[in-house]
Amino acid sequence: MKILMWIGIVLLVLFIVYILVFVAFASYVNSPSTHNAVAYDSKISNQYYREDDKVIYVMDGNFFQIGGADIEGADPDTFDVIDKSYAKDINNIYYNGKPVAGANPNSVTLVTSGLTSELSKDSANSGYLISDGKVFCYGQVIEGADPASFSYLLGSYAMDKDYLYYYIDIKIPRKATPTAMPNANAGYIQHGEQVIYHGEVISNEAGDFKIINDEYAIDASHVYSHGEIVEGMVSDGFTVISPYYRKDKNQAYYFNTPIPESDSDTFKVLNDAISKDQKNLYYNGNIVENRKPSAVSRSDADKLQKIWKWKSLHLDAITVILVPSDDIVDITNDFYAYNNEVYGRNEKLADVKPADVIVLDKDENTFVRIDNQVFYYGLAIAGADPETFAVISDRFSKDANYVYWSEHRVIDADPSTFKYEDNLYADENEAGEYSLKLVED
């Protein structure tokens, strides 16, 4: 026992020494002085350096992982930083080390004014700049923007007298002075009654709009997840219960998927996998058929959550049973045997026994035949003839009538003449049909 303890101590010490050596090495390599480089103004930008008679750009000052890139044609004697990303010399303005087309180094105005908000505290590095009567965003010109009235708002939002801008190519006609939203991240901005998320108008009910957290928001009509309406979810009674579960007045949800038959009023989360209400026990949002909710305590739920001991098998799309993992035999990654019955990923296969599942490619366990049906990763290959079916590669197969790519029929391949090549694949067209393609070099 003492020997094992000392082995553990030695391994721990070796690991700590390794970490310390790695950190010291990374710090050494990441130091500008190691590369004979000097920052032009480290208080403003950690991305621009002079190295001998060259100007180099180092993304976020990361010499260790990224390294520096020469800024071709930059004049080291007249080079100066403007903000973290913009710089200039006698010839050009640069953004992230690249010349800004159409900008004049003798005409530079940073757009730094922001809304009164913590979100605009980094407005000195807004990404917006005015030069020679043109407005630039992240080094690209915003066509038609009015420099005289242009101002920065927050995040990637800016405005002039006529439009609200998001990045370069999104502009929304001005109806009001935009304002920051309480408790919102920089993707949100309020524009009159409009709520805008990453440049898209998502709601016209700003007065009723409320940010729940970085993922969710609500108005009087809808629940939004990352700016998208969650279909079926209602704002009345909406609550984020845990990182995995939510509910509204009607039902509970596993992430954004409705939990079937769930009762919002009595719904309770036991752990990340197990929840229950007065009617059912649920596993990852599926009804558990072989457990009563009244019989499962929090400690029982913690035991059932241990996937190395317990596993769920689908009876159908919404119902599962929880059974001991040791009692399950994995036929493939998509078919399982339990109690001499076969389960697919989303359903129990009626009248199918484990001996009926024939794996057609023993190395990959990808193609399977069950009775008169052939499957690829558990998905039925429609129309495949099981008697003449043959596996060609990890994704190609054929029968007497067709060539298949995964579970899809290839429309322009003749099974009698088809020859497989390593750089061959099939691609889907707008009609949903698959045809052969070659990987381009």
Protein architecture, described:
With 441 residues, the protein is mostly beta strands. Among the domains are: 36-99, no CATH class; 110-235, no CATH class; 359-441, no CATH class. It contains 2 helices and 47 strands. The strands form 12 sheets. The protein has a 6-stranded mixed beta sheet with strand order 28-29-30-31-33-32, covered by helices on one side. A hairpin with a 4-residue loop joins strand 42 (390-391) and strand 43 (396-398). It is extended, with a radius of gyration of 31 Å. The two termini are 58 Å apart. The model has no long low-confidence stretch (mean pLDDT 90). This is DKNYY family protein. Keywords: Membrane, Transmembrane, Transmembrane helix. The chain crosses the membrane at residues 7-29.
Question: What is the residue-averaged pLDDT?
Answer: 90
The N- to C-terminal Cα distance equals 58 Å
Which residues sit in consecutive blocks of at least 5 with pLDDT less than 50? none
Biggest sheet: strands, sense, closure? Answer: 6 strands, mixed
